[in-house]
């Protein structure tokens, strides 16, 4: 369990859309330096809304953070444009693997370096790192992103985020719609980045099986509220988590489901 100071902290965050829809209520969570934290929850639980709040992306969706406080690296993010957050190291890969379809894979990656005004040499070095992480992208470097597979587009979206040299990488359902073998490739890359470079990661997922395997800790959202937090391996052993998110019914060892490090919040 990490004891490092938190890189990202959310305190009592509420998110509303328009005048009436409250999507997130009183969310508290943190991501420590070097940690992978996964935000789990079913459709509509509030994962994307929480991540939009972190990157100050709500206004584009006619939403806002109506309560609470978010700090990144000890500083409040209130009022900071997304681009400023990106240049300070808080970089998000949005839901739905956004790529510029009419640009090549390599051009897509290079757009990630533009915001930090990287030199040509730095860009070339970082491209090599991304290609080493996702060898498929090297073979597709000159292909228009719109003509590549969903998995390659997701890798390109993650690669573009890495070109911004994040300190905290946020990913919104990177596994969505992808074949298990591609999901495994992506999660292998994420865990390697965390292990080898100490990259901190906050990951929203419906696929709790892969997410809890990769993560150190998990936070479960239900109807916009945090209902459970704990160490990933212990959460994946819980009956309720297994039934709701893992599709498994085999009883876990009684020891792990009674663990004191899991906090039932609501
Ligand atoms: N732009 C929006 N305008 C109005 N309501 C929204 C908007 N985006 C999300 N919501 C509502 O907010 C709630 C939380 O949605 P959100 O997209 O954050 O959940 P999610 O956990 O990311 O779900 P999913 O797994 O489907 O991506 C839902 O009730 C949803 O309908
Ligand atoms: Mg979502």
From TrEMBL:
Lineage, top-rank taxon, reads Bacteria
What processes does the entry annotate via GO biological process terms? L-amino acid transport
Q: Where is the ABC transporter domain?
A: 8-248
Short name of one Pfam family: ABC_tran
User: Which GO molecular function entries does the Swiss-Prot or TrEMBL record give?
Assistant: ATP binding; ATP hydrolysis activity; branched-chain amino acid transmembrane transporter activity
Which keywords label this protein?
Amino-acid transport, ATP-binding, Nucleotide-binding, Transport
Keyword RNA-binding among UniProt keywords:
no
Its family remark reads:
Belongs to the ABC transporter superfamily.
Q: What is this protein called?
A: ABC transporter ATP-binding protein
């Amino acid at each position: 369990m990490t004891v490092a100071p938190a890189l990202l902290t959310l305190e009592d965050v509420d998110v509303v859309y328009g005048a009436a829809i409250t999507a997130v209520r009183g969310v508290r969570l943190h991501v420590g330096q070097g940690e992978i934290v996964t935000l789990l929850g079913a459709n509509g639980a509030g994962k994307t809304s929480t991540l939009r709040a972190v990157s100050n992306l709500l206004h584009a969706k006619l939403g806002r953070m109506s309560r609470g406080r978010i700090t990144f690296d000890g500083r409040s993010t209130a009022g900071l444009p997304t681009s400023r957050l990106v240049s300070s190291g808080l970089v998000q890969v949005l839901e739905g693997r956004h790529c510029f379809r009419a640009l090549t894979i390599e051009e897509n990656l290079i757009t990630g370096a533009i915001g930090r005004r990287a030199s040509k040499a730095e860009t070339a070095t970082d491209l090599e790192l991304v290609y080493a992480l996702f060898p498929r992208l090297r073979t597709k470097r000159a292909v228009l992103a719109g003509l590549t597979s969903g998995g390659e587009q997701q890798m390109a979206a993650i690669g573009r985020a890495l070109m911004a040299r994040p300190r905290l990488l946020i990913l919104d359902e990177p596994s969505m719609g992808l074949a298990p073998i591609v999901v495994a490739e992506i999660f292998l890359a994420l865990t390697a980045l965390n292990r080898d470079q100490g990259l901190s990661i906050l990951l929203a997922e419906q696929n709790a099986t892969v997410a809890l395997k990769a993560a150190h800790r998990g936070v479960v959202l239900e109807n916009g509220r945090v209902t459970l937090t704990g160490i990933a391996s212990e959460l994946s052993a819980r009956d309720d988590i297994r039934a709701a998110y893992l599709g498994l019914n085999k009883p876990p060892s009684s020891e792990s489901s009674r663990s004191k490090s899991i906090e039932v919040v609501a």
